[in-house]
Write a structure and sequence with these properties.
Number of domains of chain A: 1
Oligomer: heterodimer
Family (chain A): Belongs to the small heat shock protein (HSP20) family.
Largest sheet of chain B: 4 strands, antiparallel
Number of strands of chain B: 8
Family (chain B): Belongs to the small heat shock protein (HSP20) family.
Radius of gyration of chain B: 20 Å
Order of helices and strands of chain B: HHEEEEEEEE
Largest interface: A-B, 37 and 44 residues
Structural class of chain B: mainly beta
Organism (chain A): Aliiruegeria haliotis
Shape of chain A: elongated
Shape of chain B: rod-shaped
Helix content of chain B: under 10%
CATH topology of chain A: Immunoglobulin-like
CATH topology of chain B: Immunoglobulin-like
Largest sheet of chain A: 6 strands, mixed
CATH class of chain A: Mainly Beta
CATH architecture of chain B: Sandwich
Strand content of chain A: over 45%
Protein name (chain B): HSP20 family protein
CATH class of chain B: Mainly Beta
Order of helices and strands of chain A: EEEEEEEEEEE
Strand order of the largest sheet of chain B: 1-2-8-7
InterPro entries (chain B): A-crystallin/Hsp20_dom, HSP20-like_chaperone, Small_HSP
Chain lengths: 132, 144
């Protein structure tokens, strides 16, 4: 159903991330489930607020981007770091058409869930052949 | 035996943080992929306050447990597997689920009444304060 088209940077599980300018860009860890009704994607994007997420669908390419502000604690210094912070970016190629108007996205506890209901037009339709 | 005062005062309790954090961690295999420790923790310090931040995307706040006793901080919980409907087909499965647990040794005891925890956008932030009675006190020297 979906193939990854761009592999921007590494996931948080990997050792490093791609640097673009001053900020790092991570590839969000993703789960994809398909049912008869459609497809659901769940992307881990901790630190991204719903307003900072940008989703677009163009020519079957579903792109997801999120800008994550770097944590600052006034007066405090980072004494020990086990994870990095940065933006998230990933794109998927969809193998069928989905109605962009019906795509829903929800952000909950740092996980973005995108639901793509199957477009009715893509379901097999029998074409009647008229007699001449 | 006497320890030279100079070496004592130069000792940075946070310098050993990394070693302690690694040594104390025990990730439950099902929650972690490979040998990577989960959850990863960043530590911020500001004088007598320490702020721990950790990424827990997909974990419900009610499924997170934090305990503090003297110098030991523990964080545990569970990331539950999402309910997939009958006949669902997984195309991609990169995320991990299950129970997790971590313990961190802090350089000073923590006031259990002043622990502030906040969870937003999948990031847990815990502020720990050093109790007043544990803080080093400046001794005034009276003129004779």
């Amino acid at each position: 159903m979906s193939n990854q088209v761009t592999s921007t940077g590494n996931s948080k599980r990997d050792a490093g991330a791609e640097r673009t300018g001053m900020t790092r860009t991570y590839r969000p860890l993703t789960d994809i489930i398909e049912t008869e009704q459609g497809v659901s994607l769940m992307l881990e994007m901790p630190g991204a607020s719903p307003e900072a997420i940008d989703i677009s669908l163009e020519r079957r390419i579903l792109s997801i981007r999120a800008n994550v502000p770097t944590t600052r604690h006034d007066g405090a210094e980072l004494a020990h770091a086990e994870y990095g912070e940065g933006d998230f970016e990933r794109a998927f190629t969809l193998s069928e058409d989905f109605d962009p108007e019906r795509i829903e996205a929800e952000m909950r506890n740092g996980v973005l869930t995108i639901t793509l209901p199957r477009a009715e037009e893509t379901q097999p339709r029998k074409i009647a052949v008229k007699a001449a | 035996m006497l320890t030279p005062a100079s070496s004592y005062f130069r000792h940075d309790p946070f310098a050993e943080w990394g070693r302690l954090a690694r040594g104390m961690s025990r990730a439950i295999p099902q929650a972690a992929t490979g040998t990577r420790t989960f959850p990863a923790v960043n530590v911020w310090r500001d004088g007598d306050m320490t702020v721990l931040t950790t990424e827990l995307p997909g974990v419900e706040p009610d499924d997170i447990e934090i305990t503090v006793k003297d110098t030991l901080f523990t964080l545990s919980g569970e990331r539950k597997t999402p309910q997939a409907p009958e006949g669902a087909h997984w195309h991609l499965r990169e995320r991990s689920y299950g129970k997790f647990s971590r313990a961190l040794q802090l350089p000073y005891p923590v006031d259990p009444d002043k622990v502030e925890a906040r969870f937003s956008d999948g990031i847990l932030q815990v502020a720990l304060h050093r109790p007043e009675e544990d803080k080093p006190r400046r001794i005034e020297i009276k003129a004779a």
